[in-house]
Amino acid sequence: MASRRVSSVLSRSFTSASLFSAGRSSSVARGIGKYSTDASFEAPIIPSVKVNYTQLLINGQFVDAASGKTFPTLDPRTGNVIAHVAEGDSEDINRAVSAARKAFDEGPWPKMTAYERSRVLFRFADLVEKHNDEIATLETWDNGKPFEQAAKTEVPMIVRFFRYYAGFADKIHGLTVPADGEYHVQTLHEPIGVAGQIIPWNFPLLMFAWKVAPALACGNTVVLKTAEQTPLSALYVATLLQEAGLPPGVLNVVSGFGPTAGAALCSHMEVDKVAFTGSTDTGKKVLELAAKSNLKTVTLELGGKSPFIVCEDADVDKAVELAHFALFFNMGQCCCSGSRTFVHERVYDEFIEKAKARAEKRIVGDPFKGGVEQGPQIDSDQFEKILRYIDYGIKSGATLETGGGRLGTKGFYIKPTVFSNVKDDMPIAQDEIFGPVQSILKYKDLDEVIRRANTTRYGLAAGVFTQNIDTANTLTRALRVGSVWINCFDVFDAAIPFGGYKMSGHGREKGIYGLSNYLQVKAVVTPLKNPAWL
């Protein structure tokens, strides 16, 4: 049931008429008005949950930061403080790593049978399912994403990810290897040890699941640093893991800032592996700190500037809807968003007209209100960054078709923005904006669009919209990216690996590939005496 909701709400494809959203969105838009935002005219909806967990989770206990410091986490609808959260730093990372190291070296978790570990993860998934709406409410309150997206898609996906990896826990095994000579050779797949994990603010709980689930299934212990913008939901679900039977010290959660807590985690000599999701610039620093310390292994899921290619045979109405989803989903705050929309010259003018109209029908408002498609940006820094890039687009000569500014008078809302006549050398076509800004570029033929699509430092994902299987196959193999979605976008099944080429990262998360991030392979060789066979 969860997987059906995931594929129908998060992803968009055009294999079934039931997945189209244009009609519903358009009718709601007519009722509320162009670029409507309830946040500007009504008091924000008061969330129905209390914030009960604001301390650090270390060795199974909630504790204050060693310094006693806290920092505010804000409601992006208003900029008001939701709660003050413990501000962890290097001393708190030391405490958390010490607990994780002891739990791995001496505790029961890696020594449990794989089946027992799987039962803990299955129980946790059941508890997340039970508390679906509470978790989704915290996520929306702290992040600003639509509640319907969090409750109907993202929290069920967390359940799915943990059940997926719980099922893998007792299926991790090595091989018996034939060798030249009288030897018995086997490989062991062993847990790597203490995993440091740093998650971003755009999908806090999904990234929690992508990282924590495979790490625990493999028998590791974890020190997780939350994004300073969105600490609340991870602290809440960590309590559910404890309720499910996770031993103390196996999962430790530290809220804090990158230059202090994050840097301490990456450079810690007792951390065996780091997994990071965030910007490419920060990823470089993570890699440097890991190399300069104990040369720990690193998994990086970084930035993107993904092409979305509309071919000349496209059904323009469907292509517009899918391209709109690919860019504007999650307020444009998605590493793989289709932020370079390449449209064939034959359909370019029609596409521009309809993309503008679709953006102007987008429902922007309080994310707790039903029917809202777009909430506020995460914070003032991201809000101002997006506005700067909109200004760059105007000054560099792109045509502003619609949007282009703040929406309302409070909170961090931005009008859905569409640029046409965008050139490859413009900042809006080169840099990761991470906001609701669609840049539409014109191309003539496949060779040209392949060259231009690949002319970027990123290589995370791409979308292709075509009715021609030969065109799809040509583009699939030519695009230098980690994921290619054909006539769909943002399909994030638990079994599908995700990661980037080039400066979009190292390694793959999700699926069977995600397990290798948290395992080491050991070869064991034993001589055989008078073997009956080799």
UniProtKB/TrEMBL annotation:
It holds the Pfam family Aldedh. It comes from the Eukaryota. The active site is at residue 301. InterPro entries: Ald_DH/histidinol_DH (IPR016161), Ald_DH_C (IPR016163), Ald_DH_CS_GLU (IPR029510), Ald_DH_N (IPR016162), Aldehyde_DH_dom (IPR015590). Residues 62-524 form the Aldehyde dehydrogenase domain. The keyword Oxidoreductase applies. Keywords: Oxidoreductase. PROSITE patterns: ALDEHYDE_DEHYDR_GLU (PS00687). Belongs to the aldehyde dehydrogenase family. PANTHER family: ALDEHYDE DEHYDROGENASE-RELATED (PTHR11699). This is Aldehyde dehydrogenase family 2 member B7, mitochondrial. It comes from Prunus mume (Japanese apricot).
